Amino acid sequence: MPKHRWRESLKSFFGSHIDPEKDDEIKGNKAEIEGKVQKILEVLKDDDNDGKGPLVNLIEDVHNHYLSLYSRYDHLTEELKKKAHGKHGSDSSSSSSDSSDSDDSPRKKGKKNGKVEHNFENDAAAIKQDLEVALSEVAELKWKLQAATDEKEALNQECQSALSKLQEAEKIISSLNAEAEKWNDEKARLLAENADLNTELESSRKLQAELNQKLEDMNKERESLSIEKEAAALKIEEEKRNAEELKTINNQLQQEKDMLHLELEAVKGEFSTLKENLESTENEIAKLTQLQKVAEEENTSLSSKITELEDEIKKAENKIQDLVTESSQLSEKLADKDKELSTHLEIHETHREAAKEKLESAEREIAKVTQIQKAAEEENSSLSLNISQLQDEIKQAENKIQDLITESSQLNEKLAEKERELLSHLEIHEAHKEEAREKLEAAANETAKLSQMQEAAEEEKASLSLKISKLEDEIKQAENKIQDLATESSQLSEKLAEKEGEVSRHLEIHVAHKEAAKETLETAEKEIDKLTQMQKVSEEENTSLSLKISQLEDEIKQAENNIQNLATEASQLSEKLAEKERELSSHLETHDAYIQETKEKLESAATEIAKLSQMQEASEEEKTSLSSKISQLEDEVKQSENKIQSLVIESSQLSEKLVDKERELSSHLESHEAYKEDAKERLESAAAEIAKLSQMQEAAEEEKTSLSLKISQLEGEIKQAESKIQDLATESSQLIEKLADKERELSSHLEIYEAYKEETKEKLESAAAEIAKLSQMQQATEEEKTSLSLKISHLEDEIKQAKNNIEDLGTESSQLSEKLAEKEGELSSHLKIHEAYKEDVEEKLGTAEKEITKLSEMQKAAEEENSKLSLKISQLQDEISQAENKIQELVNESSQLSEKLAEKERELSSHLEIHEVHKEQSSTRMRGLELELDSSHTQRREMEQQKNDELSALLKKLEDQEMDSLNRINDLTVQINAIQAEAESLKSRKVNWKNK
Known about the structure:
- By secondary structure, the chain is mostly helical.
- It folds into 2 domains: about 1-105 and about 115-170 and about 880-995, no CATH class; about 245-365 and about 400-565 and about 585-655 and about 675-760 and about 780-860, no CATH class.
- It has helices at about 1-20, 20-45, 55-280, 280-285, 290-365, 370-445, 450-485, 495-525, 530-605, 610-645, 655-685, 695-730, 735-765, 775-810, 820-925, 930-995.
- The radius of gyration is 61 Å and the shape is rod-shaped.
């Protein structure tokens, strides 16, 4: 029985290792594990990620270790089977012998007891030996099991340390994720800044396109105005020559003035003799007291009317002088515009050459036209912005000019009304003159001596009127020259001092005449009674009235002659304007034919759309050229109106100006024909690549209708101008009195003008470098300067009026003693006004200087802003470099983390290898302990599977996070590079913009 128990224990010990069912189960597990390994490898290969190579290697290493363990386990089980079969044969023989002994025991007890006992002892010794061997093996297996448990605990500790390291790695990954989120926020901020920069870039591109468009328009205007500039230069040369002639004429007039003063002194002496003769005729005058009273009343009424007429004439003269100054200022503005347009034209020539090269390259390379077109459109949009700003400024200047023209037209209308009133007054005066003549003829029979004296005075008056008429004829020729020269004298401070000295001298002479007149009047009051005084006053008034009447008659005759001349010149002007209208109509007809031709070509080329933008630009340029030409025609019509208003002054130069205008019109037509030929060539070259221009054709037709309306309006304005010619003919009589004063002042004006011209040239040359960046501000200062020059010209006109008043007082001081006080009051008021104007001008000059300083401060502020912007750009570059450094640090950290992960993987692989070695050792030691260690094997397998799953999950998670961080870092680097490129492009564009 104990033998059977030991056999059963041995069978149970070795049966677990040689059981065929467990063998099949192990083989099934092997096949299942191999299938899972193949699936994992296929999944990893399908994912095809570069970062999963180490994981594939680890899985293959684990699978190879598992196969080696399985092969060792299979080898051990085969050896156990062999050993078990050998022992099983011996046991079966012993059992058969036992059974046979047991069967024969009753029969052979006696014979074989000794032998059985001997066999039993042998079997017991063998069993003891086997038992000792088994016990030694069990002890050895227990020792190995203890070693395996120790190794298991060590492996668990190592797994715990690996898990803690993995947790630390997860913490590092979370910190990296936080930093990545921060970088994402920074990226969003940079993207917002990039969007702002893109919007600014788009706005700058639009501005550049608008400036290009405006520059093209300005270049076209420059082409149209360059011819006018040349004509103006020729005219200025002629005016310089005329100015030299006027200097000689002025010297002659000064000599004649001295002669007239001597003759005036002689007239005063004769007047004193006339006073003595009047005392002798007191008895004869006593009979005419009643007639004298009536004549005195009539004379007072006539004198009051004449004073009113004189005041109106002075007002008209002032208004005419204002108009003259306004026209001169307009000419200065036109000269400034010519200069600006010349600069713009030079820029435009360069741009036009570049555009021609671009067109030629576009014709050669049609495939790349769209990209070049976009770039050109962006540049044109940025330039068109600047050009639109310049056009707005030009429009403002044109509006100011239009306002001045309307004011001058209103003043001309007022002058025409005043002239009509003057004519009515002259008619009334003629009636009164006839009555006075009848009364004087009735009184001439009784006063023979007075009539003889009056005839002598009339003869002297006739001689003086002849001289004055000669002077007026010479002055008329000089006045046209003075108009252009007088406007250029903008700085009149030195002249004002001279004028004040002259006024003071005239006042002293006037006071001396006044004192002499008072003394003569006091002596006359003592000698003559009230009746003789009244007679004397009436006779003086009659003589003054007769003189004024004769002067008015001469002026009326001259006005009639001027009216006839103006009528002939107006007819010539109307004929020339009709010719211009016919030329304009023919020009429009040719334009219509050209539009029809382009329409036919465009309808034939409606299949291709590649170069639509180029042809659209060409049509828009043609449209702008037509509109600019029509605006030029309008300006020419306005200029013709202004010239018609100043036709009385410039009647001798109208024919030359009309010839110049005809040349300008012919040049405009020639330029338009040349442009038309160029446009035809462009249309023929791009005829196969145009579509959708029918809408533009309709717009052109609408513009044509608007142009025809404008032409009709211009025709109406021309007709109104022709009607104004006749109204303006009466202004010639009012301008005669101003010519003498202008001739006296011509030489001083010329000298001051030459000095001022040289001074302004030097100042302009010295300030040219400082005013380059302040052109827009300079325009405002120039406008203020023109306003100051207007006020100074007004002051000059007032000084001229004061001189006229003083000269009138000097000639009439002996006859108008009662009016001296009034004239002195008027003169003092004029001087006060002049002083006030002078102070106002000085204040405005001070304000202008302050504004210039403000402009310089604004320029400095702009430069400071530019420096601040450059600092901000440098700060942005520093921030970008810092961001790049941070990204580089993150890349380094990620590389370090990847290296650490590789080290961890190597450590894990080494631990797994050690674990596999221990596993192999434990499997060899635990072959005899399968019953006790089945549960431990299953737990161990589950733990290993969990560990492998956790490790694979952690590795996968780490790899995913590493890939995400790498992708984010790459995205950030790409975005930062793009931002740097955009910032550099913006900086280069800003530099180019500053250079432009």
